[in-house]
Amino acid sequence: MMKNAFSGFCLRRGVGVAAGALVLMALGTAVVAGLPARAQNALPAASASDRALAREIFKELIEINTTDTPAGNVTTATAAMRKRFLDAGFPAEDVLLLGPDARKQNLVVRMRAEGAPIEKPVLFLCHMDVVVALKSDWHTDPFQFVEKDGYYYGRGTQDMKNSDAALVWTFLRLHREGYRPKRDLILALTADEEGGKFNGAEWLVQNHRELVDAAYVINPDSGGVELDHGRAVVADVEATEKVYSDFQVTASNRGGHSSLPRPDNAIYELMAALSKLAEYTFPFEMNGVTRTYFKNLAGQETGQMAADMRAILATPPDLEAAKRLGTEPSINSNFRTTCVATRLIAGHANNALPQTAQANVNCRIFPGHSPEEIRQKLIALFGDPKLTVKYVSDAGEAADTAPERKAIVPPDPIAEVFEPLTRLTQAIWPGTPVTPVMENGASDSIFYAQAGIPSYGFSAIALEKEDERAHGQDERLPVDSYWKSLDFFYAFAKELGK
Ligand SMILES: [Zn+2]
After folding, report:
1. Which helix (H) or strand (E) holds 175?
2. What's the rounded Cα separation, in Å, for the pair 123 and 110?
3. Are strands 224-228 and 462-464 parallel, antiparallel or unpaired?
């Protein structure tokens, strides 16, 4: 039934099966998948000289190693882009290089509105770092931009120097053409999305909110068009994310000789707690994104499945229907927080009573709840004061309390973004339905959701499912897909700047 299990590109924190079934945006321009494509209504293609510039920028970025290793340096890339903006005539105060780490400077570019802005800015958020790539694993040098058989090869060609280059090019082209938006357009090129921590998008919003404050974020690090043998089947837009959290559950005991067992036993106490977790389901929830998702999905399904999806949308929701739907993990994860035991370690000798038993519980938290709220819920569920439940930070350290910050409950998909996004997507890939999805993985969008700024993920690149190579070897992007993303972002930036 899941016609599309397309996952976002940046899933550093584990598998991110997007809420991926086919959904039609109820925006008038959407058409039903499977119908013959409408007449071509392609966007005007960039000129040959513009394409040459866009290729040059892409090449330059691919050939700068921006991995979080001694050989990598994000600042080399962001400084090179800053030079391009300064050379093009952007004022220095609108092209800022900043960050707490000299090797990981972020670039924030502001294209100012003509006159007093009528709306808050739009922020395009793009990470500049890439995942480590070993030359020995690849058929080409990952840090050389190689064009071969209709593809560009190199680390970052899918994730996401393609979009970095496309947006640098878009801003430069708009500036050259004398375009003045009605609201500020901001482009942030950032460090530390893939690895390393704290110097990139999160640092910017927490320390320089004034530079990146926006009505909403466009993050090309997720979403995109899925191809099936060359035919575009669906365009995903990531419109909200669950929050990833790990919790360390520990039972401790004075131990002793295993020939003299007692009722108190760390392993049994931990098992009792985990058994409660196995039996527990977090409450059913909906938000603007998942409601749209299920509403449209119901129209694609038949029989009991369709009826159940309609029933969970009723007020109040039919929880028996939710129970039936929830037996499918990919549906269940779309309407509740989930927590599951993923690792276990206990005891220290075959002939000793265990002194400790410890489990990792991994949670994907529904937007609107904080990790600390979930930690408290686990403590209450276990109901055993002898157990400790600690939060495991990104750095792997266990802490007595968890963050209070939570991702905002996302608004209904806003027409201001989805109307042009749908129209332009269909101009390039006629007949492709556009779907909002909730992501189970994590991108930098989460830091903006936690700061109250909604974020929409769309890469504007089209890939065959089996050709998703982000983080993998021989990463590549079809040349044609790059050209289309240029046309998309140029037109999309103009629409959002209106
Ligand atoms: Zn990425």
Report:
1. helix 161-176
2. 9
3. parallel
395 φ/ψ angles, rounded to the nearest 5 degrees: -80, 0
Pairing of strands 122-127, 185-190: parallel
CA angle, 354 as apex, 379 and 392 as ends, to 5°? 40
Cβ atoms of 196 and 104 closer than 8 Å: yes
Task: Compute the distance from residue 222 Cα to the ligand 1 centre, in Å.
Answer: 7
d(CA 162, CA 169): 11
Q: Are 51 and 482 in contact (CB under 8 A)?
A: no
Give 127 Cα–ligand 1 centroid separation in angstroms.
7
Give residue-wise pLDDT tens across range 394-415. Answer: 889 999 999 998 888 888 889 9
In whole angstroms, give the CA distance from residue 19 to residue 34: 20
Report the candidate in 451, 439, 453, 458 with the shortest Cα–Cα distance to residue 365.
439
Weakest-pLDDT range from 116-120, 146-150, 193-197: 193-197
| Distance (Å) from CA 132 to ligand 1 centroid | 12
E strands present in 34-105: 95-98
Ligand 1 geometric centre to CA of 485 (Å):
16
Helix (H), strand (E) at residue 356: strand 356-365
Q: Report the SS3 class of residue 435.
A: strand
CA of 293 from ligand 1 middle (Å) equals 24
pLDDT category, 433, cuts 50, 70, 90?
confident
User: Per the structure block, which two tokens stand in for 257?
Assistant: 């000789």
Which residue is associated with the tokens 């299990």?
5
User: Which residue intervals of 177-317 are DSSP H helices?
Assistant: 201-207, 209-212, 266-279, 288-300, 303-312
Residues 212-259 pLDDT 10s: 999 999 999 999 999 989 889 889 899 999 999 999 999 999 999 999
Q: Are 109 and 80 in contact (CB under 8 A)?
A: no
Distance separating alpha carbons of residues 196 and 188, to the nearest angstrom: 18
DSSP designation for 471: T
Edge to edge, the sheet with strand 151-153 lists 146-148, 151-153, 476-478
Whole-angstrom distance, CA of residue 447 vs CA of residue 204: 10
Beta-carbon-side half-sphere exposure of residue 95 (alpha carbons within 13 Å) = 18
pTM: 0.85
- Cα 265 to ligand 1 centroid, rounded to whole Å: 45
Which class for 71: exposed (0-12), middle (13-18), buried (19 or more C-beta within 10 A)? exposed
DSSP assigned state of 224: E
Distance of alpha carbon 129 from alpha carbon 195, whole angstroms:
8
Strand partners, 455: 217
Name the least confident of 22-26, 297-301, 451-455: 22-26
Radius of gyration of the chain (CA): 24
